[in-house]
Amino acid sequence: MPEQPVTEAVIAELAQRLDRAWEERFTIAPLTESAGISDAATAYRIQTHWTELRLGRGERIIGRKIGLTSKAVQEQMGVNEPDYGTLWASRYFPAVGGRAEAPFEVFLQPRVEGEIAFLIGETLDWPDITPQQVLAATEALAAAIEIVDSRIERWRIKLADTIADNASYGGLTIGAWSKALRSSDLRTIGMVMSHNGRPAVFGTGAAALGHPALAVAWLANTLRSFGIPLRAGDIVISGALAATIPAQRGDLFVLEMHGQPPISLRFV
Fold first, then answer.
1. Considering 53, 145, 251, 267, which has the largest number of Cβ atoms within 10 A of its Cβ?
2. In the chain, at which residue ranges do the beta strands (DSSP E only) sit?
């Protein structure tokens, strides 16, 4: 028997359920189980409605995130394709002198991952955007630490769960923007993430769908299919370069990327 279309009332109720979990800091059962949400298109409708709820309360969009680009993270999360979410300014933690702090109490079950951030300099709004066009439209790049977090209990997510949950967005910090990084081979650029002084995970740019610019091209084309171009001024974090690391209060993470100054994030 074919699935019945999910009504706007149900979409609104599920978005509000996620919003309450975010605001009041509690986890909920997977939407794939509790509400039978199984397809990506419906999950993106929930994500969009949730973002609109937050925008109505003064939230600001600073860009987009690509999730589940690394095979290591896909295997961790039990999914097999990328997704995207929205970067909300209220969870951007500036790195002052390369050091950022995030209040641990605002998260539920945070993990961190190292990524490459793109600062889009030209709006990408045409068919079949290529990685080369992404690089040509990029103003600068930077090392970034993303905090991923889930409102879904014990990270028991399927693809539709994490999409609806804004691609498991928790927060982020970004290092210094570099125009010189545009001419680097992003596919082979290396990264080390240390956890409390010890190297914990290692990765390369190729972990993000084979090339970070390929991941951003996937995002640009996917967004455009929904009538949303990647715009000049958007920040895009292009996907984890290694497996995520669970975080606890007091933990210190340091991301070192070839040719870039290190950035650190401490949970306080």
1. 145
2. 61-67, 83-88, 99-102, 111-120, 138-148, 169-174, 190-195, 198-204, 235-237, 245-246, 252-257, 263-267
Distance between CA atoms of residues 217 and 201, nearest Å: 26
The burial of 83, by beta-carbon neighbours within 10 Å (0-12 exposed, 13-18 middle, 19 or more buried), is given as buried
pLDDT at position 110? 98
Checking if the pLDDT of 2 tops 90, the result is no
Cα separation, 56 vs 24, whole angstroms: 18
Q: Could you give the CA distance from residue 63 to residue 231 in angstroms, rounded to a whole number?
A: 9
If you average pLDDT over residues 23-41, what whole number do you get? 96
Pairing relation of β-strands 235-237 and 61-67? parallel
What distances in angstroms separate CA 72 from CA 82, 114, 201, one per listed residue? Answer: 12, 13, 11
Contacts of residue 24, defined as CB under 8 A and 6 or more positions apart, other chains included, come to none
Residue 42 one-letter amino acid? T
State the Cα–Cα distance between residues 50 and 66, nearest whole angstrom: 18
Domains of the chain: 61-267 (3.90.850.10)
Average pLDDT over residues 106-122: 97
- pLDDT tops 60 at residue 3: no
| pLDDT (tens digit per residue) in 57-85 | 999 999 999 998 877 667 766 777 789 99
- 202 to 72, 105, 241: CA distances (angstroms): 11, 28, 8
